[in-house]
Amino acid sequence: xxxxxxxxxxxxxxxxxxxKSASFKLNKDGMLNLIKKLExxxxxSKVQGNESxxxxxxxxxxxxxxxxxxxxxDKNSDFMELMPLAGLKHEGGFGPxxxxxxxxGYVSHKxxxxxxxxxxxxxxxxxxATSLKNLRLSQIAKENKLTTINLVESGGAxxxxxxxxxxxxxxxxxxxxxxxxxxxxxxxxxxxxxxxxGAYVPGxxxxxxxxxxxxxxxxxxxxxxxxxxxxxxxxxxxxxAQMHSTISGVSDFLAENEDDAIKMARKIVEINVxxxxxxxxxxxxxxxxxxxxxxxxxxxxxxxxxxIRDLIVRFVDNxxxxxxxxxxxxxxxxxxxKINNHQIGIIASNGVIFSESAKKATQFIQLANKNNIPIxxxxxxxxxxxxxxxxxxxxxxxxxQLIHAVAGSExxxxxxxxxxxxxxxxxxxxxxxxxxxxLFTYPNVKSGVMGAEQLAGVMEIIKLNAAKNSNKxxxxxxxxxxxxxxxxxxxxxxxxxxxxxxxxDDGVIDPRxxxxxxxxxxxxxxxxxxxxxxxxxxxRL
Length: 541
Description:
Number of helices: 20
Mean pLDDT: 90
Number of strands: 15
Shape: globular
CATH class of the largest domain: Alpha Beta
CATH topology of the largest domain: 2-enoyl-CoA Hydratase, Chain A, domain 1
Distance between the termini: 26 Å
Number of domains: 3
Low-confidence stretches: 1-8
Structural class: alpha/beta
Strand content: 15-25%
CATH superfamily of the largest domain: 2-enoyl-CoA Hydratase, Chain A, domain 1
CATH architecture of the largest domain: Alpha-Beta Complex
């Protein structure tokens, strides 16, 4: 049985990376430059408003969004921020991260999603990126059965973005309702304005706490009410915490101040969330190899091959990776390991996916499901192999089998993209569209339908053939310029800074933090009993 693998004298992979080699140093320098760019972008995401807004908040005794998170999570516990660069490249948006700080932390020793509105940034209004972020948080909460705590201070939808935000808002409310039906709690703590669509967040929550003198929850403020009904009213009369706690019943608990509100939220979690009390487990059985080595392993030029097992043994327990079918389908590495004592099956693409590679991974997925073991997918692939011989040997069938296996698998999946992730190879390795529980990327990642040069080359051939078939002369100078422009555009679209902006991942991470993120996610995943699938889509044999 697979779960007994550690008891067998199976061959473990031993890394032979030379830290003093010229290639290692080149790779390390390239990755460090990318990490600097990552850190620069993350600093932008930490901006919580202009100086005037921050000063005003402090004068009113308000905490900032990140300060509220620090207050509500357990002391000396970790917080795993998610999607901090959402909207990074969005024109007309509110900047990286949008108007919310979100992630997973432990509250009263229970893992919770915490979604803290940045009320000092555009009044916490929801732009397009923030709406996408909220939807992804809803998915994570549902799949992992996590309580969501909303720290609310939001003016609702950003009106210039309403055409793109409207349906996302509706979908978020639908998911809140469905989670409530399934007993997955949503708790809202209102510290300021929660207007228009923002009013429905506390209104639809299982429990709502409002801060006296600060919380204002209403569908329309006094000016709009005056315009619509000619009725005179104050903020407090329309939506104050006192009113909602004594007259409307929208508020379940009336807090005297911020700290009181946070204590109430923590107590609600303690009493009502049935998860076993625990904290993010301390790191045990660390790898034998240094995590800093990861910086020099992945080539600065992704066209150059590397052994992905050198990476794996730097984030798994005791650097022990027990490989399955080591000599077969060698461009796909499959095997078993542990991460912070959690059993995990690993499928790592090690270049182009051949038929043998696909068949090996398909079998491994079936075995992991039979033994109820979660799977980690590690991407570095340009996709499935093409060419006459490979097509005739059934590449389509074997690739389809693998995709069927990934789609049909019911054990939890985590995806880590460390290099290229192109074409159907992305699907076969459980990319975003295949709904892994969590998906993280390195700052060197490129993904899309195909590489930029290949894409531009294909378009060039199509244009040449079209001109030939219509007996038209081709302007070679324009053709070359168009090709260069397309390469630049395709490179930009394939860049991790674009894909993370569109929430195609849950965060771009420093490779040295890989073990922390994987360990944290496995703690969340393994709080529920894991049960694998016994059937899959039809395999064409």
